Amino acid sequence: MVEFESLLDSRSYFTLVLHSYAKKDSSPGAEQSDQVSVQGLYAEQISGTSFTTPRKLNQRSWLYRIKPSVTHEPFKPRSPSHKRLVSEFNQSNSFATPTQLRWRPLIIRPKMAFCMYCHFCTGGNELQMHLIYHYHDGRYAANKSMENCAYCNADGDFLIVPQKGRLWITTECGKLQVSPGEVVILPQGFRFDISLPDGPSLGYVGEIFGTHFQLPDLGPIGANGLAASRDFLVPTAWYEQGPRPGYTIVQKFGGELFTAAQDFSPFNVVSWHGNYVPYKYDLSKFCPFNTVLTDHADPSVNTVLTAPTEKPGVALLDLVIFPPRWLVAEHTFRPPYYHRNCMSEFMGLIYGSYEAKSEGFLPGGASLHSCMTPHGPDTKTFEATVAQGENAGPFRITDTMAFMFESCLIPRVCPWALESPYLDHNYYQCWIGLRSHFSHEETKCKTNELQDVDGAAAELEGSCA
């Protein structure tokens, strides 16, 4: 595994060319694709953007491999099919609901690998400027490593957030070990397999189509803070050689699964160079910003990665985290304020407890607050915060890591998510105990004082006349 100090540039795009090799002199010289290949390797390019995308946005890599990936039998629909994959969300396969939703942690039951027990709870799609933007949110539960097969998502990028159990991910660019507290991006088109060194694994999955993740602009924050480019890790080239009879490629294409057989491993890339690669990030390296006097900072200040749309400042999907940090604001209600948002929020808890939900929102659980649906701290959190009075003093939030997938699209919820035994039908009750603290007498007194001031001002104006 190699760390690159400048994996992302100041504009937050992958522009610098990275280079890794598992065998010396396995990359070509001046040409990308030599007439006579170096060490008998095949040159193969993978493009994450169109060929004519502006240079500062263009994402592509060259892979130098023992056999090209085209060497396989025809794809066939996978049998049995995956019943919980969705291509485009519409009224025939999902539901729109403004109700606040929450799910309890999954329990692993069947012997399932990641590729077959990764399913989505919600998603949205929209046609903008002739580009179709999709996003999906979901969870995965796996207790079986992928054996003699690899998965490829031709639809979009995966963002995987493990909550329990490490993932050992082999990609065409090399291997990545991803632990709870880290996230990994598997870009569109890359083949990978996932092994489970710790046994069963649980976590969350986001998928985007039509754009790629990048670092958010820092604006007034300046040059430093939030997620630093140097902390993103990419794999070192690694390859396996030799026959693999009956090897299967499982391809997600148009929301369906297809399989193709080949007689070799797809992880036969001896060297690679480019700027379109899988990568991971340790959330503990995030440098949070917060208010140091009054008022509450918006959650956008905790954005790790963003997948932008054509509209500036509006994201198809943001990855936002709520890490350990100090709360020092004075005269300010410190937990997240009650609000309605034009963005939709799918939240998960990796470990610890979430500051706005002291009970019920458990590690491995999830919640959905859709566009303009009100939400905020539960009753217990609100009452405990108000009881501290004006002089709460500095307080450090520790041993917690929550995250949020935030999207500009209105989500539709899959039927299996609404019918799930993990759905918390009593979620709404966490706010039912909120009572009125309004004092009519105090307000009336203040109103009279204002009237007296207005009367004095009118009298003074009359004397001046």
UniProtKB/TrEMBL annotation:
<keyword id="KW-0585">Phenylalanine catabolism</keyword>
<dbReference type="GO" id="GO:0006572">
    <property type="term" value="P:L-tyrosine catabolic process"/>
</dbReference>
<protein>
    <recommendedName>
        <fullName>Homogentisate 1,2-dioxygenase</fullName>
        <ecNumber>1.13.11.5</ecNumber>
    </recommendedName>
</protein>
<feature type="domain" description="Homogentisate 1,2-dioxygenase C-terminal">
    <location>
        <begin position="284"/>
        <end position="438"/>
    </location>
</feature>
<feature type="binding site">
    <location>
        <position position="339"/>
    </location>
    <ligand>
        <name>Fe cation</name>
    </ligand>
</feature>
<keyword id="KW-0828">Tyrosine catabolism</keyword>
<keyword id="KW-0408">Iron</keyword>
<keyword id="KW-0479">Metal-binding</keyword>
<keyword id="KW-0223">Dioxygenase</keyword>
<keyword id="KW-0560">Oxidoreductase</keyword>
<feature type="binding site">
    <location>
        <position position="375"/>
    </location>
    <ligand>
        <name>homogentisate</name>
    </ligand>
</feature>
<feature type="binding site">
    <location>
        <position position="354"/>
    </location>
    <ligand>
        <name>homogentisate</name>
    </ligand>
</feature>
<dbReference type="GO" id="GO:0046872">
    <property type="term" value="F:metal ion binding"/>
</dbReference>
<dbReference type="Pfam" id="PF04209">
    <property type="entry name" value="HgmA_C"/>
</dbReference>
<comment type="similarity">
    <text>Belongs to the homogentisate dioxygenase family.</text>
</comment>
<dbReference type="GO" id="GO:0005737">
    <property type="term" value="C:cytoplasm"/>
</dbReference>
<dbReference type="InterPro" id="IPR014710">
    <property type="entry name" value="RmlC-like_jellyroll"/>
</dbReference>
<feature type="domain" description="Homogentisate 1,2-dioxygenase N-terminal">
    <location>
        <begin position="18"/>
        <end position="283"/>
    </location>
</feature>
<dbReference type="GO" id="GO:0006559">
    <property type="term" value="P:L-phenylalanine catabolic process"/>
</dbReference>
<dbReference type="InterPro" id="IPR046452">
    <property type="entry name" value="HgmA_N"/>
</dbReference>
<feature type="active site" description="Proton acceptor">
    <location>
        <position position="296"/>
    </location>
</feature>
<feature type="binding site">
    <location>
        <position position="375"/>
    </location>
    <ligand>
        <name>Fe cation</name>
    </ligand>
</feature>
<dbReference type="InterPro" id="IPR005708">
    <property type="entry name" value="Homogentis_dOase"/>
</dbReference>
<dbReference type="InterPro" id="IPR046451">
    <property type="entry name" value="HgmA_C"/>
</dbReference>
<feature type="binding site">
    <location>
        <position position="345"/>
    </location>
    <ligand>
        <name>Fe cation</name>
    </ligand>
</feature>
<comment type="pathway">
    <text>Amino-acid degradation; L-phenylalanine degradation; acetoacetate and fumarate from L-phenylalanine: step 4/6.</text>
</comment>
<dbReference type="Pfam" id="PF20510">
    <property type="entry name" value="HgmA_N"/>
</dbReference>
<dbReference type="GO" id="GO:0004411">
    <property type="term" value="F:homogentisate 1,2-dioxygenase activity"/>
</dbReference>
<dbReference type="InterPro" id="IPR011051">
    <property type="entry name" value="RmlC_Cupin_sf"/>
</dbReference>
